[in-house]
Automatic annotation (TrEMBL):
<feature type="signal peptide">
    <location>
        <begin position="1"/>
        <end position="31"/>
    </location>
</feature>
<keyword id="KW-0732">Signal</keyword>
<dbReference type="GO" id="GO:0016810">
    <property type="term" value="F:hydrolase activity, acting on carbon-nitrogen (but not peptide) bonds"/>
</dbReference>
<keyword id="KW-0479">Metal-binding</keyword>
<dbReference type="GO" id="GO:0016020">
    <property type="term" value="C:membrane"/>
</dbReference>
<dbReference type="GO" id="GO:0005975">
    <property type="term" value="P:carbohydrate metabolic process"/>
</dbReference>
<feature type="domain" description="NodB homology">
    <location>
        <begin position="69"/>
        <end position="256"/>
    </location>
</feature>
<dbReference type="InterPro" id="IPR002509">
    <property type="entry name" value="NODB_dom"/>
</dbReference>
<dbReference type="Pfam" id="PF01522">
    <property type="entry name" value="Polysacc_deac_1"/>
</dbReference>
<dbReference type="InterPro" id="IPR050248">
    <property type="entry name" value="Polysacc_deacetylase_ArnD"/>
</dbReference>
<keyword id="KW-0378">Hydrolase</keyword>
<dbReference type="GO" id="GO:0046872">
    <property type="term" value="F:metal ion binding"/>
</dbReference>
<comment type="function">
    <text>Is involved in generating a small heat-stable compound (Nod), an acylated oligomer of N-acetylglucosamine, that stimulates mitosis in various plant protoplasts.</text>
</comment>
<protein>
    <recommendedName>
        <fullName>Chitooligosaccharide deacetylase</fullName>
    </recommendedName>
</protein>
<dbReference type="InterPro" id="IPR011330">
    <property type="entry name" value="Glyco_hydro/deAcase_b/a-brl"/>
</dbReference>
<comment type="similarity">
    <text>Belongs to the polysaccharide deacetylase family.</text>
</comment>
Length: 269
């Protein structure tokens, strides 16, 4: 516990890159080959995230300790018919693992897509029960907590068939990044890490897949690394992802898969 407390303090501090590595919370590269595709992008390594972390420079002063040209792929708002399946197909073809921040209502309706994502090695994370129009910051505190907890329960039931006292994957992203100090404190007390993003594809705007690809690559080349936000509910994103993964490989980028601290040492649930 002392080790994780120090790691969490390090992740919230500007020196987190070196301290996390020194504490051994960044496992070695995952060099497993991609069957049938020798030039696949693949997943370069797995990174463990300590409990209660707050990362993503769009929301917080610090982000994950990524090396140059390393990216974490995240998808919000799913699962959604057709588009989530297409994105899972593209990720599977390139042996890339991503993180899906699910809306509980969508997970409840489409558990087969949640189970597929989990079975293919992706991280199942949380994004509230209904993605309320007013955002969680616009709700009374008890209602916002209920939105969070109901979403976690729905996601876990869809993924695992049971609901435990704590989320299986303690990762959360606020809808619209609209956090409050009280809700951040609540999640920290629950040991739940909060994710912002370092860059996004702006795929909530209408554009062609080609326009989205150009936009996100320009932003990524400017940033050099980071947590990238997509939405697996968007048809333009689903159409763009195969070309995006190919472009990452061609440009020398590497993908990092995020999991809770010590999750790699535990047997699958």
């Amino acid at each position: 516990m002392i080790l994780f407390a120090r790691a969490l303090a390090a992740l919230r501090a500007p020196a987190s890159v070196t301290i996390l590595a020194l504490l051994g919370l960044v496992p070695p590269a995952d060099a497993a080959p991609c069957p049938g595709q020798s030039d696949a992008l693949g997943t370069a390594r797995v990174m463990e995230v300590p409990p209660g972390a707050r990362v993503g420079t769009k929301s917080f002063p610090q982000t994950l300790p990524l090396a140059d040209r390393e990216v974490v792929l995240t998808f919000d708002d799913g699962p959604w018919p057709t588009t989530t399946a297409a994105i899972l197909d593209a990720l599977k073809a390139e042996c890339v693992r991503a993180t899906f921040f699910l809306i509980g209502e969508n997970a409840r309706i489409r558990p087969e897509l949640v189970r597929r994502a989990r079975a293919e090695g992706h991280t199942i994370a949380h994004h509230s029960m209904t993605h309320p129009e007013a955002t969680l910051a616009g709700l009374p505190f008890p209602a916002a907590v209920a939105e969070i907890e109901r979403g976690i329960a729905a996601d876990d039931f869809a993924a695992y068939g049971t609901v435990a006292g704590a989320p299986r994957i303690p990762f959360f992203r606020f809808p619209g990044f609209a956090a409050t100090p009280a809700l951040l404190d609540y999640l920290s007390q629950r040991g739940i890490s909060v994710f912002g993003a370092d860059l996004w594809a702006s795929d909530w705007n209408k554009m062609t897949p080609e326009q989205e690809l150009d936009l996100v690559l320009r932003r990524l080349d400017a940033a050099g690394r980071g947590i990238i936000l997509f939405h697996d509910t968007k048809s333009q994103t689903a159409a763009m992802i195969p070309a995006f993964l190919r472009a990452l490989a061609e440009r020398g980028y590497h993908t990092v898969h995020i999991v809770p601290a010590s999750a790699t040492a535990r047997p699958p649930n």
